[in-house]
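Quick review question:
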């Protein structure tokens, strides 16, 4: 799965970098968790096999670590995190209290739903917040994300690789989605999460988190918010304006400050990525974000 230059799992001139480097990914990540929870078995899988109730923010950071490694990490790091995820999923089971049956966490249907809810949330939020992502780049992004799906055990050819294919997938699966009690509880947790120990320094600002959580909720598709009914409706034009404001503020933060939200191991992976790219001739003076500018890439790799 290595890229041509072998430096990162996805090349700096990829559509994946253009989407994932945007700080609105934090909104997309939480929105993705809320959307994923609407699949009853997927939600039970999280509820029964993780500490989501105690640390919902921790799940988001673990997802961020996976996404970071299969984007900015070396091909070897991406392969390793994929192997680790597959090994964990292989051992886990889900008990369905309605039927009494047990299901595998790595059931392809569940893996596909989690993947599609996640990547479509990233793409839709970043575009809605104002990132200049054209329709062709959006299609290229979803095609590239088939590689990420392969890391968790899916066959790339079974994964939607364009906006049209993703829309068709959601139209097919929507009748099977519904908010079980655990899903509604999960959304409420995400609106007011418990802070991890290493982020307790942010505790005084925790009241500011609710507007962020609400923004994630209100960015859900209309049909998903209707299913949940957790918060009263607000004009969607105001949600779009809030997303654009969030993007403007967070994208202006220094990279070192922004990365404090990641786990130490994720920060170390990003540091190593900058060093590799810098040694290969990339201009990393403005961090990884600067590499979406073609002028900061070596001429042989420029878009």
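Suggested answer, residue by residue:
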């Amino acid at each position: 799965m290595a890229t041509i230059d072998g430096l990162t799992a996805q090349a700096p001139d990829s559509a994946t970098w253009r989407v994932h480097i945007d700080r609105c990914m934090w909104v997309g990540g939480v929105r993705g968790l809320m959307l994923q929870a609407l699949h009853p078995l997927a939600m039970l899988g999280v509820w029964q096999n993780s500490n989501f109730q105690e640390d919902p923010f921790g799940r988001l950071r673990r997802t961020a670590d996976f996404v970071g490694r299969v984007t900015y990490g070396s091909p070897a790091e991406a392969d390793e995190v994929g192997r680790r995820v597959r090994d964990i999923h292989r051992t886990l089971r889900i008990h369905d209290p309605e039927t009494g049956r047990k299901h595998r966490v790595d059931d392809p249907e569940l893996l596909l739903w989690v993947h599609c809810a996640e990547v479509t949330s990233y793409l839709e939020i970043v575009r809605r917040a104002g990132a200049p992502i054209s329709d062709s780049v959006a299609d290229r992004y979803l095609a590239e994300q088939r590689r990420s799906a392969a890391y968790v055990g899916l066959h790339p050819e079974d994964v939607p690789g364009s906006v049209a294919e993703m829309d068709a997938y959601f139209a097919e699966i929507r009748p099977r989605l519904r908010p079980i009690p655990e899903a509604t509880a999960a959304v409420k947790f995400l609106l007011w999460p418990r802070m991890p120990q290493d982020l307790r320094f942010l505790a005084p600002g925790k009241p500011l988190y609710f507007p962020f959580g609400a923004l994630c909720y209100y960015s859900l598709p209309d049909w998903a918010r209707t299913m949940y009914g957790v918060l009263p409706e607000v004009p969607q034009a105001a949600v779009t304006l809030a997303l654009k404001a969030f993007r403007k503020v967070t994208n202006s933060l220094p990279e070192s400050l922004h990365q404090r939200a990641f786990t130490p191991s994720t920060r170390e992976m990003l540091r190593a990525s900058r060093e590799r790219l810098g040694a290969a001739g990339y201009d990393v003076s403005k961090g990884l974000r600067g590499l979406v500018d073609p002028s900061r890439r070596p001429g042989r790799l420029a878009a």
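Why it works: The chain has a mean pLDDT of 91. The longest strand covers residues 93-95.
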